[in-house]
Amino acid sequence: MFLGYPFISYELQQYQYSAVIPFVVSMFVVSRALKLEDKFRRYGLIGIASLLCIGALFFSRIASQMFPVMIYLVLIWYFGRTLIHPPSLIERFVKLQFSDIPPEVLEYCRRLTMVWTLLFVGIVLVSMMLIMMDNSWYFTLLHGVLVWVLMACLAVSEHLYRLYRFPFMKGQTPSIKETFQSAIQSRDQLL
Fold first, then answer.
1. Cα-based angle 26, 15, 4 (whole degrees, multiple of 5)
2. Distinct helix (H) and strand (E) counts, the chain
3. What integer pLDDT is reported at residue 76 of this predicted model?
């Protein structure tokens, strides 16, 4: 569903049903909110669901296209806040897998976190430009294909550069798959 979302959204827009997605998402948000015991979070999520419904009623195309933008805004916040309040997010990943990390690797981790943050900022800026230009097809192409290609290229090129930049770590550097598995298993420690 996550990968197909841009294409589903585009098709719904072509048939004037773009309000469907914000309404469906708002139902999921409300169902999640009702399970929470923390009243602040519960009412916050209900408020978000209400805004989604209002957006679906009055700005359905924009509301349906804002979901990927909101996801990348959260990623900007998640990565960017660790640049302001160290250790950086990627440094946290590395510390999950290694105990003794050379200082130059820690600086590299900080810069890499900055690169990912800037990629997400670029995606948001281009997305907002496409939304304002009312160009649904290019928006769909961006989020359905180009974003994934960009992130894959960055991940692979970073992995190859890391092997070149830190030859003393050869054989110690985990694969991309191992890194993601470690991050998923330790997600509570990364927050």
1. 60
2. 10, 0
3. 96
pTM assigned to the model: 0.80
User: What pLDDT is attached to residue 1?
Assistant: 57
Task: Give residue 187's identity as a one-letter amino acid code.
Answer: R
Query: C-alpha angle with apex 157: 152 to 158, nearest 5 degrees?
Result: 100
Q: Diameter of the chain by CA atoms?
A: 58
Two structure tokens written together for 94: 């590395």
- Rounded to 5°, the CA angle 32-34-28 comes to 35
Half-sphere exposure of 14 (CA within 13 A, CB side): 8
Q: Which residue type is seen at 99? A: S
The pLDDT of residue 51 is 87
Residues 57-90 as b/e (b if ≥16 CB within 10 A, e otherwise) read eeebbbbbbbbbbebbbebbeebbebeeeebbbb
DSSP assignment of 9-52 equals HHHHHHTT-TTHHHHHHHHHHHHHHHT---HHHHHHHHHHHHHH
| pLDDT for the residue numbered 153 | 95
Question: pLDDT digit string (tens) for 129-146?
Answer: 999 999 889 999 999 999
Which residue stretches of the chain have pLDDT < 50? Answer: none
Measured between alpha carbons, how far is 169 from 164 in angstroms, rounded to an integer? 10
